[in-house]
Amino acid sequence: VVSAYGVEHAVLQAARDRGMKLIDATCPVVTRAHSLAFKLAEEGYQLIAVGDHGHPEMVTLKEALGDKVKEVRVTLRLTDSPACLVVDRDAMSAHLQRLLKAAGQKVPATPPILELNPQHPLVQRLKFEEAKLADWAHLLFEQAQLAEGGALDDPAAFVRRMNELLLDAGARK
């Protein structure tokens, strides 16, 4: 079943190539918006998605993470990862911030933006994890932090949280 948010054409084609039957529950408005967006992108327009950060899930994740992130939003750039950290266009990259700190320079705090892959199973699972949403938010943030080469503020808390979530997921099977 294809979610109401839709999926990329390549994902659909890969499923068909594997002989899978698809039930497309994509919202017709989403389908039209995707088609128009791809057409405009092919014509050279730069596209900016506006509005997804207002979804209740995004607001709740931002509240759970507090000042660790500037915002939480959906991205279509990710294919395999559930989340990544990015900075505003004019902000200093996390790598450069780490280099300057290591050199003893004072670096202004610039919280990253947490981008979520709406097609990833962990992100899709969030809608069923209301009781543990804060733990999932922190886990996704910390995974993204590790993936970009950053260090965790509290590695023991990360391991404890991950173990609890894995045990919860295993107990439900």
Describe this structure in words.
By secondary structure, the chain is mainly alpha-helical. The protein contains seven helices and three strands; from the N terminus they run H-H-H-E-E-H-E-H-H-H. It has helices at residues 9-17, 28-42, 56-65, 94-102, 121-125, 133-147, 155-171, and strands at residues 71-74, 83-86, 113-116. Helix 3 packs across helix 6 and helix 6 (133-147) packs across helix 7 (155-171). Mean pLDDT is 78; it is low at 49-54.
Shape: globular
Biggest sheet details:
3 strands, mixed
Mean pLDDT over the full residue set: 78
How many beta-strand runs? Answer: 3
Number of helices: 7
Structural class: mainly alpha
Distance between the termini: 21 Å
Helix content: 40-55%
- Sheet with most strands: strand arrangement: 1-3-2
Rg estimate, integer Å:
18 Å
Provide the β-strand percentage band.
5-15%
Report the uncertain regions.
49-54
What is the element string, with H for helices and E for strands? HHHEEHEHHH
Blueprint of the fold:
Layout: H1 9-17, H2 28-42, H3 56-65, E1 71-74, E2 83-86, H4 94-102, E3 113-116, H5 121-125, H6 133-147, H7 155-171
Helix pairs in contact: 3-6, 6-7
